[in-house]
Known about the structure:
With 677 residues, the chain is α/β, with parallel strands linked by helices.
Amino acid sequence: MAQVADGDVRRPRRRGSPRRPGAQRPALPPPTRPRRPRRHAEVRIRRRPAGAGAGQRPRDRRPRRPRRGRPRPPVAGVRDHRRQPRRLPRRGRRPRGRGARPRRHRTRRLRPGALPRPRGLRRHGRRGRPGPPGRGHPRRSRRGPRLRAAAGPGQPRPRRPAHRLPAGRRPHGHPGHQGRRVRRRLRPRPGPRLPGARRDRAGRGRHPPPHRPLRRRRRRHDHRRTAARARRDEAHRHRAARPGHDRRRHRRASRRPPPALRRLRGARRGRRRRGHDRAGPRPRRAGEVRRRLPRRDLPQPPGLPREPGRPVSAPTLAGSPTGSTTGRTRIPIGGERPYEAVVGRGLTGETGRVLGAGPLRVAVVHSRTLLTTARAIARELTDEGRIVVSLEVPEGEAAKDMTVVVGLWRALADAGFTRSDAVVAVGGGATTDLAGFAAAGWLRGVRLVLVPTTLLGMVDAAIGGKTAVNLPQGKNLVGAFHPPAGVLCDLDLLDTLPPADYASGLAEVIKAGFIADPEILRLVEEDPAGAFHTRELVERAIRVKAEVVTEDFREDGRREHLNYGHTLGHAIERVAGYRVRHGHAVAAGMVFAAELARLDGRLSAAEAQRHRTLLAAAGLPTGHTGAWAPLRDAMSIDKKTRGNRLRLVVLDAIGRPALLTAPDEALLAAAYERLSR
Ligand SMILES: NC(=O)c1ccc[n+]([C@@H]2O[C@H](COP(=O)([O-])OP(=O)(O)OC[C@H]3O[C@@H](n4cnc5c(N)ncnc54)[C@H](O)[C@@H]3O)[C@@H](O)[C@H]2O)c1
């Protein structure tokens, strides 16, 4: 910008606009104060041009002259603040001529005085979405710029659509449908909304599509329902509620229980099911509780007494009272803190008595399979005025994990468990081991009551006060001695136990027979399925363990005998990733120990063979295939190992266990070779 004398400001000539020779200089606007130079990083605000027409771009730099003649139409996109005529231009056919375009190519112009629509809104006012198909509404075509025009006299207003023919007699005599469903369209409805801000309806998350009625579509109520759930007092019997602990048929097969059975439809639905008119129990009154029929209703083998309540055989374990099929049998267990194991039926109701008056808060630890039992126990404890926290843990061996233990401790902390509160474990050996360890660790030990629900849990895991969890490096490597306040062995709970788990428990019962009570072996040989001697077998096996742990609570000597078959058993479990049942692995381990004892000259071939016969009759494995080396490595970290010296429990005779220390490696390999034949 060049400065001229007397403060005159010269503007540079625009490029491409040569001045005509002799042309007068255009009159320049009055001089303005020159702008000061911008400071560093200063941002200037653009001033809005003031005054009417200020927003218009001047066609040239000359000052405006007042315009003569008709006012020109405003330039599209620029605001025009001048007065506009009120009369709207006539719609309809236009004379075709110069400059006239076919109608569909014509661009829509805003009417003077109309507010421009926000960008992105289409004719029907829904941003970015296409309009409903077809015309949709008689006045739809009127919407758009016309309805967005500022309301004023002469502006069109939408009218209500014409009502349909009202219900009643039709001209041709038919009365027409009179029902509400049909007539709902005939009810007076408001006209189409004037455009404006859309607001959400109160209580609704979203708008229904405008062309759909607000009612739900009607459906036939013929959907398949899930199976009936177990009643309050029943364990799950229905197939739909079957626990998912069965072996999967395929590694990718579903872990879930089989689907719900289809309910009867039609004629036999509800109370008219098959056999409903036959003699049967009367309908239950409200709130009445019924017990399920116990196992003794199973057919009895010939030669055994039929009357319930009579002992099925005379137990002969020295120094212990006879078992009973009625009432409760209390078996004392000594050690650092003596307690009782109670065997009988319908015992879960005694949990509160065993807990004592002290605990106010009780955590009931259970897996999903035992939910019904755990709930029943929780209900009784709540009725006693205690605060019950129900804690569900994974099924089986998956529960014996440090992360699960920490989860339990956090839950106890959240529930404000104090030292006088208690833990109740409801489940198999895995659950009682886990809950016992959690109870042992919480505030250095809180009261614990065990309600074992598997045969193995009753005869072994819940007895003796040992608790433990697994590590990837080995089974039961982290644990504590924490005797419970009591153990409730409710035989009713075994009714739902799958046969494979029952057999797994039978392995520990048979082990007790081999190391201390040969009568157990005779009972199992007589009834390998254990259907008739269950109670006696449970009591005998508990007594064997009680006697041993009373004498050697800390496992410094005699208690090691209880690990008969466990050294190889634990190794098999570990190498198989704990996918083998504990009792099944122990059964193979007992056959291995018997072969070892036979090769070592301790057992006769007949006694070793008796192992195989008995275990096979009980449905347990008597062999194991697989490489020896990984099993041998896994045996090295067995808890009986001292230094590098492996120690195994073997039998000098049936009922006479002994320790075999640092056996010859060739002997071990030979015994395994016989097992894997
Ligand atoms: N602490 C000890 O002294 C000791 C002794 C022996 C074994 N154990 C441990 O016990 C564990 C094995 O116990 P387990 O054989 O009871 O197996 P488990 O606890 O793994 O239970 C087996 C399955 O049976 C289900 N189940 C339990 N009760 C049921 C019932 N009444 N009806 C239907 N299903 C039921 C469970 O949900 C689970 O899926 C092992 O971890 C083992 O180390 C501990």
